[in-house]
Task: structure prediction
Amino acid sequence: MENFDAIVIGAGHNGLTNAAFLAKAGLKVLVLEKNEYIGGATASLELHKNWKYSNCSYVCSLFRPEIYQSLDLGRHGLEVVPLQGSVTFKQDGDYLGSYHQSDLWRREVARHSKKDADAAVRFDADLMKWCRLIRGFLLRTPPDPASFRPRDALEFAFLLKKFYSLSESELYEFIRFFTMSIANYLEQYFESDVILAHFSGGSIIGTGLGVYSPGTAYVLLHHAMGDVDGNVGSWGFARGGMGSVAAALSSSFLSFGGTIRKSSEVKKITVSNQTATGVELVSGEIINANAIISNLDAKRTFLKIIDESDLPEDIVKRAKNFKIRGSSGKVNIALDGMPIFSALPDKSPLTLGHMHFSDTLERLERAYDDWKDDRWSSDPYVDMVIPTQYDPTMAPPGKHMMSVFVQYCPVSPEGGWDDKKKKAFGDTVINQIGDYSPNFKDLILHAEIRTPHEIEKEVGLTEGNIFQGELTLDQLMFNRPFPGYAQYRGPLKRMYMCSSSNHPGGGVMGAPGANAAREILRDFKRKNTTPEDFGDD
Amino acid sequence: MTSSVFQKSPFQARLDALNIVQQWTSWNGYKSAQVFDTIASEYFAIRSTCSLMDLTPMEKFRITGPDSQRFLNRLVTRDLSNLAIDRVAYVIWCNDEGKVLDDGTVFRLGENDFRLCAQHHQLDWLSISRLGFNVNIEKETDDIAALAVQGPTSFSVLNKVGIEGLDKLKPFQICQQSISGIEIMISRTGFTGDLGYELWTSPENALDLWDLIYGQCENGNFDIRAIGLHALNMVRIEAGFIMPGEDFVTAETAVRADRSRSPFELGLSWLVDFEKPYFTGKKALQAEALRPANRRLVKLSVEGNKPPADAFLYDKENGKRIGTVKSCVWSPILKANLTLSDIEFENGSCPEKIWAEIYYQKELEWKSSWSQCHVSHKPFWKNARASLTPPMKF
Result:
C-alpha cells in the first residue's frame, strides 16, 4: 500500500489549494473526493449537450492573486475575465445601471439622486478603508486572543496596530460597521430606494439574514474585499466556468507529484490515542497518513466523519451549534439566444455583469420574511449573470448560459422538497425574469433548479450554505469555526481543517487552504511554500 | 480634415464610432486608439475571445525586381534564401556597426515580390541599401488597409465570415481569398502570442471588411472588441516581443554612443545567421560574438504587485546598479509583474541575483520598496493554441 504524508478530504478549491502547497513543499499528498468530478462547488458541468454550467459558484473575485501566482495557475489554464457593468431593474420600467466607466456611473446615479451621486464618493472611500484593513488579514493565521504564546501575542499586536492606524472616529465607525445592518449602514449615505437596494444585495447573499439584520454590513465587505488585477471590489468570470479554477489547481497539484482519487468518499477519520492516523473510505479501504486535513465544513467534519467518542465534548457541542443555515438556491439555464430586457437600450453593456430585480429595501426584507417561515421568497432577490457574452467556451456561438443565484430558498419547506415544489421554486425565479424580458421564457432550452437540498446532497455543503458557515462576528477571525480552533489545527493531533469554515471564510478565495498549509508545514518543519500578502500599501 | 494633426485610417469611421473614451495617439502619424473602452476588456478580448486592431499605420514597403530576394537577404541578419512563396519571416536589420535599425516581417508574395513591414520609417535606409541591386522599392503604408484579428475565437470568426482554408493555414503562412467581392490577403501572423491573423486589402474595401467581421459581434455570434495600443503593449510583453523605440533606441535615431543595441544585446542571437551570404553588420557582429557579453535585454519577472515602471535594477538591496526596466506590465493572466529589462553582464554572464528598487505612489505619497527579480529564458506566455493547425474553435 502506498504511504502518504498527508490526506486531504474533499477536492474543493480549498482542498486543492492546500494540497498543492503541501506537495510543493515536497510532501506526498493524496486528495480524496466523493464525487466523480473534482471542484466541489467550483465546478463546470455539461448538464445540457454543448452547454457548460458553473452550477454552484459562478463568479470570482476573492481568489487571492498571491496564490494564483505562486501556484502558477495562469500557465495551468486559469483565466479570470473581469465583468463590466451591472444593473438593478426597477418595477416602473426604469433601471439603475452600474457602468464600469466611472463618469457614466456617476451620471447614472445622479439620474436617480444628485445627492447620492456625491455621497457615492464618500461611500466608496469608506468601504475602501475597511477593505484595506481586512485584506491584510486574509493570508494570515488569526491570533488566539486567549493564548500567551509569543507568536499569538505578536500577531495580536499586528492586528491591533492595523486597527489603530485608523483615526478615532474611523475606529468607532469600523466597530459599528461590523455590527450594523446593511440597510442602516447604507442609509447613512443614500436616499434613493433603488440605490439602497442595489448596494444591499451583496450583503444578504448566502446568509440567513435580511437587509435589516445586524451583521449584514460586514457581508457587503466580504463581497467587496476581493479584486481583479488590483481593482478592489471587481468580479470576474473564470473562462470555461468555475470548474477552471479547480482544473488549474489540480493541474498545479499534479505537477508537484500529487495524487487525486475521485469517487472515494471518506466514511471516517481513524483515530488512535487522540491522534488522527488515517481515513476509512466508504468502500472499507483504510489509508494512513501523518496528517489528515478536512476540507469539509465544520459540521460535517466533526459530526459526520469523526466518531463523537473520539472528540472532546465541547467540540461536539460547538459543532452542533455552528451556524450554517442554507438560504440560497440556483437556477442554471441554457438559452437559445440573448434575452432582450425591455428597460435597456439596444446593445447596452449593462447585461455584461450582475443583474438584479429588487429595487427597494422593503422587497428585500419581505423576501427574507418568506424564508423565516420556511418558504422560498415569492419575490426573490436574484444575482443573475450571462457569462457566455464573454466566454466562448460554455455554449455554442449565439447561444447563452445564464446563472441565476437566488436568495432566499429554505433548507426544507413545509413537508420537505419534492419535484413539484422544486419546479414551483424554479418557476418563481423564471417568472420574475420574464417580467423584465419578453423573449426570455421562449429562449429556455434547459434549466437546472438547485435548492439547498441539492447543493448539500451533491456538493456536501451542510444545509447548502455557500460560505460553509454564517459570516457573522461570532464566527469570524479567531472565532472561526470555534474559539480556540481558528489556527487550522483540529482537536485531534495531526488533524487539520482547511475549508471555508475557517478564517477568512467562504467564497472562492483559496485563503483557508493556503493558511492551513502554512500551519501544517510549520508543524512538519518544512519550508513554507505559501505566499505572503502582496500588500496594499 | 484640417482640424486634426492626425492622418486618418481607412477604418477611421468605425474606430471613431467605437472609441467611447476618445483616447487617441499618433502611430506613424495616424490617428490610433490607445484605448476604446477599458484596457482590461481589450486585453481579455485578445486572450479570451477575439480582438480587432487597425494595423494600417504600420510601415509597409513593397520590394520587387530580379534582385529582391538577394537584396533582402543582404539587408536582414536572418537567412531568407529558403523563405518560400506565401511564407512570412520575422527579421531584424542592422547598420554596418551591427546595431539594430528596426524589426519587422518579410512576406514573400511571389518569386520576386516581397512586402517588408517595419515599426519605423525605413525608406531612407532601404534606399541606401539598394545600391548595386536591381530592385524596386515602394512605400505602400497608405495603400494597404491592414487589420489584425487576434484571439482564441479568431479562427471561428473568420470561418463564419466565409474565409475558407484557414484550418490548413499554418503559422507564418499566407493565403489569398475573395469574400463578398473583396480581395484580401490573410497571414497567420501577429504580435500577441495567441492565435491570430492579419488581413490585408485595399483601402476602399476597408469598411466593408470591418463590417463583415465586426458583424459577427453585432449579430450576437461572437464577442469581438476593437483594441488599442495599450492592450497590445500588454500582450506583446507577455509574449516577449520587443518594441524598437521602447525597449532600445534604434541605431538610426540614437544620438549618444552607448544607446544603440546589437541583436545579441537584445537577446535576438537566434535571428543572426553567420552561415548565410554577407549581410549588413556581419563583420561587426562576428567580432562581437567573440567578446564576452556586456549586456542583454532580458525577460525579467518582478515579485510582488508594485509596478516596476522605469525601476533601476541592482545586484542586491542597496547594491550596485546593474540595469533598468524598459517595458513592464502587470499580467492579468499570470498575476505577475513582467518586464523587459536592460541588464549589464559581469564577465560575460547574467548576474545571479537581481533586485528592483520600485518607486510607487499611494494617495499622493511616494514610497519605495525592493523586489527580487527572476530571469525567464522563454516567453512569459505563449498559448499552445497559437501554433496548432488546424486551430481550435476557441
Q: What stands out?
A: The CA atoms of residues 98 and 281 of chain B lie 4 Å apart. Chain B has a mean pLDDT of 97. Chain B touches chain A through 33 residues (CB under 8 Å).
